[in-house]
Specification:
single chain; about 260 residues; alpha+beta; 5-stranded mixed β-sheet; two-stranded antiparallel sheet; 7 strands; about 30% helix; elongated; 2Fe-2S_ferredoxin-like_sf; iron-sulfur; tricarboxylic acid cycle
């Protein structure tokens, strides 16, 4: 066996070598707890596992009362947003190999609910305020006059103008990473502004002025402090801060 072949075989073996990881999870059960508290669980894992797999292990084999949201498990629904080692991420997109300590050291991963939204149980937060802000910016196509007799034509350049903000999956990672939102939940938040941007700059839409008026409110885009937390937290790679700045410029110059 050549050296290269031996190295490849060793790497493949390492990928499937079982390891033990400690999950330090912020637990809260409103029926018995007055305050959240940390609990630790030793969980078997492989380097190729997603963090979501380990959360399932805790629920299925250690503590069935453990609560968290999840749905598609493929980074599309946005349900399993949580703080992982202090950073907002989707548990289904985080691979163990990216979290393991080097040189075989014991790995401890801290997991907590996203900030700024009331914790209902464990990692399960109340998303109602988040979706109220989303609905408030009218996230749908607004047109006036008679319906067209064929599809609404749009050039590729016009489509590209708002392409980035169509990627939002409403996971709340950006909004719950925002210091302004932590301190004042009445702020619309990055996700609502991103979804307003998606329609404000859509050439087929005729409701831009309405949305700009909504976001010109005291709790709208002017609350943004440009910390870039939202952009860093977005699991879809959306340039959130850039979108917010474009909405601000549209308000300043009344030009879409």
């Amino acid at each position: 066996m050549t050296t290269a072949t031996a190295d490849s075989a060793t790497a493949a073996s390492d990928e499937h070598t079982p390891i033990t990881v400690t999950l330090k999870i912020l637990r809260f059960n409103p029926e018995v707890d007055s305050e959240p508290h940390w609990e630790s669980y030793d969980v078997p894992a492989q380097r190729t596992d997603r963090l979501l797999n380990l959360l399932f292990y805790v629920k299925d084999y250690i503590d069935g009362t453990f609560s968290f949201r999840r749905s598609c498990a493929h980074g599309v629904c946005g349900s399993d947003a949580m703080q992982i080692n202090g950073i907002n991420r989707l548990a289904c997109k985080v691979l163990m190999k990216d979290l393991l300590e080097k040189d075989g050291k014991k790995t401890t991963i801290t997991i907590a609910p996203i900030k700024g939204l009331t914790t209902l149980k464990d990692l399960y937060v109340d998303m109602d305020p988040f979706f109220e802000a989303y609905r408030a910016i009218k996230p749908y196509l607004i047109t006036y006059g008679n319906e067209p007799t064929r599809e609404r034509i749009q050039s590729q350049a016009d489509r590209d103008r708002f392409d980035d903000t169509t990627k939002c999956i409403l996971c709340a990672c950006c909004t719950s990473s925002c210091p302004v939102y932590w301190n004042d939940g009445s702020y619309f938040g990055p996700a609502a502004i991103v979804n307003a941007h998606r329609f404000i700059f859509d050439s087929r839409d005729e409701g831009s002025e309405e949305r700009l008026d909504i976001l010109n409110d005291a709790e709208g885009v002017w609350r943004c402090r440009t910390t870039f937390n939202c952009t860093d937290a977005c699991p879809r790679g959306i340039q959130v801060t850039k979108a917010i700045q474009e909405v601000k410029r549209a308000l300043l110059f009344k030009r879409v």
